[in-house]
Amino acid sequence: MGKQKNYWLLKTEPGEWSWEDQAANGGLSKWDGVKNKQAQKYMKSMCVGDLCLFYHSGTKFRRVVGVVEVVREWYEDGEGGGAVDVKAVGEMSTAVDLAEMKRELKEVDKDFVLFRQPRLLSLSNSSSLRLNLRAFSSSSDYSNQSRGGLPRFFSETLPPSKGGVVRVKGDEYWHMIKVLRLGIDDRVELFNGKGGLVKGRIEKIDRAGLDFEALENPILISPLTTRWHVFAAFSTLKGGRADWLVEKCTELGAASVTPLLTERSQSISENRVERLQRVILAAAKQSQRLHEMILKPPLVVGELLPVVAQSRLSFVAVAEAAPVFSTLSSCTKEPTGIIIVGPEGDFTEKELKSIREAGAIAVGLGPHRLRVETATLAFLSTLMLWKNGDLSRLPWIVEVVAPFSSLENLVESIKSKVRSLKKSKKKPYVKMDKSASVRVEIRSRKAKKLINKTLKTADRPGKTQVIS
């Protein structure tokens, strides 16, 4: 019979160490700074695998906000005290305050020590408490659980069916056993980066690796309906910014990332590519993504052009171009799409011209100059939201460029035509500036037709550009 878990309470003021602090960096932390002798005695009794309620104290709302697990027992920290290491198991779907715990646990013990003892303490080994903790948790499988599910690890091979066994070695084995200190019978998940996922347990551990036994049949999850391929010139980024770009593209759901080599971003080292591969795998596990993002070999702009020409949906970030939302409102969603972001200093005029001639649609990301990583993530986030959203209610933007003296009559003509539409809920926004440019935002479908008709029939010697 396995060793029974103990249950503990860890109190902390959110201003000093909050659940958000605990959940960061993989959820691992060193729990130190405890000076009370009785509390230190309890900490010395903690064992690997024990669970702790993470309790916010010292505030108006005193409540349990999560559960952590002991992953390293008491050790001297070299600062005249000691510590234990804990790992975030899961956040409560709803924080549980003291009054609610009293109501839930009164059947276990009317004089439950949690309600009497002011400091860190041992709770109980009772099965009744285990059931109540289960009710508080956001998942029935709260034991050995990371936020949102069981700890997840990568394996190219998955068991074919329930009861099947696969061998796990290398970095994933080290992470399971040496970092998280998982043991036999602990529950984990394996994924293969191709949509496959299976829940199981650690069956056997030795020095070379471990055996994973599937407790369920593997499942296969289909990929996203629109797969966005990112081409970004990030090879010259320094200070971990390239890592951050690739990590966030993985979390947001990009299908692939390709380093783009340009006149202002000409190479990327092999060592950096290997590091980025590790970043992608870590981000996939953290975000619980089942389809691995692919890091493709670098491409020069000339090699990108045929890819753009074959794509039915390609966008390139260009300063001063039409806003991205106004452009998307007239685009048709496709199974795949391309996002292109230039280097620091942007593309050269020749490069940008060739990309646009190949078929990429130029879009703007706002009035400010953005870093490569900022532009890439803003671009990708917008398109991922567009994939599942409805932009039909976004305004059309009509921009008219003409000699200044002829604009006033044109503006008045546009206003009168739009206002004549009784069903138009909002009046147009018309702006005229010294550059002889007029921008009109319309939120009525009928208004769009009248606007176009007005622009065609207006007496003006200038140029008209309609962006819809």
Q: Mind explaining what this structure looks like?
A:
The chain has 468 residues and is α/β, with parallel strands linked by helices. It folds into four domains: 7-136, ph1033 like fold; 152-220, Hypothetical PUA domain-like, domain 1 (Ribosomal Protein L25, Chain P, Beta Barrel); 227-388, Alpha/beta knot (3-Layer(aba) Sandwich); 396-467, Ribosomal Protein S8, Chain: A, domain 1 (2-Layer Sandwich). The protein contains 13 helices and 23 strands. It has helices spanning 19-23, 37-44, 98-105, 127-136, 170-179, 241-252, 270-286, 301-310, 324-328, 349-357, 372-388, 407-419, 445-457, and strands spanning 7-12, 28-31, 51-56, 63-76, 82-97, 121-122, 152-154, 165-168, 187-191, 196-205, 210-214, 219-220, 227-232, 256-261, 294-295, 299-300, 314-317, 336-341, 361-363, 396-401, 429-432, 437-442, 463-467. The strands form four sheets. Strands 13, 14, 15, 16, 17, 18 and 19 form a seven-stranded parallel sheet that branches. Strands 2-5-4-3-1-6 form a six-stranded mixed sheet. Strands 7, 8, 9, 10, 11 and 12 form a six-stranded mixed sheet that branches. Helix 12 (407-419) packs antiparallel against helix 13 (445-457). The termini are far apart. 31% of the residues are buried. Keywords: Cytoplasm, Methyltransferase, rRNA processing, S-adenosyl-L-methionine, Transferase.
